[in-house]
Amino acid sequence: MPIIEPRILKGFRDFLPSQEIARRSLMETVEGVFRSFGFVPIDTPALEYAEILLGKGGGETEKQIYRFKDNGDRDVALRFDLTVPFARFVALHQAEITLPFKRYHMAKVWRGENTQRGRYREFTQCDFDIVGSDSPGADFEILLMMRETMKALGVEALVHLNHRGLFNRFLEYRGIRDKSVEILRSVDKLSKIGEEETGKQLEEIAGKEQAGAVLEYINAGGTFEEILDTLSGLAGGPCPESERLSVLRRFIIDTGTEASFELDPSITRGLDYYTGIVYETFLKDDPAIGSVCSGGRYDDLAGLYMKDRISGVGSSIGLDRLIAALENLGKLERLSSYAKLAVAGSREEDGGRCQALAERFRSGGIACEVLLEPAGSADPRQLTKQYILAEKKGARWLLILTGDSEKFTLRDLKKRENREDLSFEEALKIAGN
Amino acid sequence: MPIIEPRILKGFRDFLPSQEIARRSLMETVEGVFRSFGFVPIDTPALEYAEILLGKGGGETEKQIYRFKDNGDRDVALRFDLTVPFARFVALHQAEITLPFKRYHMAKVWRGENTQRGRYREFTQCDFDIVGSDSPGADFEILLMMRETMKALGVEALVHLNHRGLFNRFLEYRGIRDKSVEILRSVDKLSKIGEEETGKQLEEIAGKEQAGAVLEYINAGGTFEEILDTLSGLAGGPCPESERLSVLRRFIIDTGTEASFELDPSITRGLDYYTGIVYETFLKDDPAIGSVCSGGRYDDLAGLYMKDRISGVGSSIGLDRLIAALENLGKLERLSSYAKLAVAGSREEDGGRCQALAERFRSGGIACEVLLEPAGSADPRQLTKQYILAEKKGARWLLILTGDSEKFTLRDLKKRENREDLSFEEALKIAGN
Question: Fewest beta carbons within 10 Å, which of A354, B347, B365, B373?
Answer without folding.
Answer: B365
